[in-house]
Design a protein that fits this description.
This protein is of the alpha+beta class. Helix content is about 40%, strand content about 10%. The chain has helices at about 10-20, 50-60, 65-70, 80-100, 105-110, and strands at about 25-30, 40-45. The chain has a two-stranded antiparallel sheet with strand order 1-2. A hairpin with a 6-residue loop joins β1 (about 25-30) and β2 (about 40-45). α1 crosses α2 and α1 runs parallel beside α4 (about 80-100). The model has no long low-confidence stretch (mean pLDDT about 85).
């Protein structure tokens, strides 16, 4: 069996912590309701799986996808830290959206599985025919 690039779950945790520590601060434009001027507020770039994978490849020279996906069930001992990492990045995105740090109004609903679609026309019945009435000025 091929040896693992990341020897322990603790090493994977350190990589995650290193990744989060190096995330850049972006300047977020916000319109001031008092002055009408645009102000720029510092906000840290959110952690993502894609960013983490790119960071590990760039800094350590190998992939991390197989650890995150538990490829071939060969990474079971990493499940605890992988669960933590996934929850950490998801929590940042959801709470950032809920507090207005990020503008992604549907993100929270998608991540939590909330469905806000309402059927107001068919009561759940299949639509087989569509009837259209064209109203013109001289049809009155």
């Amino acid at each position: 069996m091929k040896s693992k690039y990341i020897e322990t779950p603790e090493d994977l945790q350190r990589m995650w912590d290193d990744y989060k520590a190096q995330l850049p601060v972006d300047m977020l434009p916000v319109l001031s309701t008092k002055t009408g001027e645009v102000m720029y507020l510092p906000t840290q770039k959110p952690p993502t799986r894609w960013g983490f994978e790119a960071f590990v490849w760039s800094k350590y020279g190998h992939g991390v996808k197989q650890y995150l996906d538990n490829q071939d069930k060969a990474y079971n001992e990493y499940l605890g830290v992988v669960t933590y990492i996934k929850n950490d990045w998801t929590d940042e995105h959801v709470t950032g959206t809920m507090t207005g740090k990020y503008k992604a109004p549907n993100l929270t609903a998608r991540v939590t599985g909330v469905n806000d679609n309402v059927d107001v026309t068919t009561n759940g019945q299949a639509v087989n025919d569509i009837k259209v009435t064209i109203v013109t000025p001289d049809s009155e």
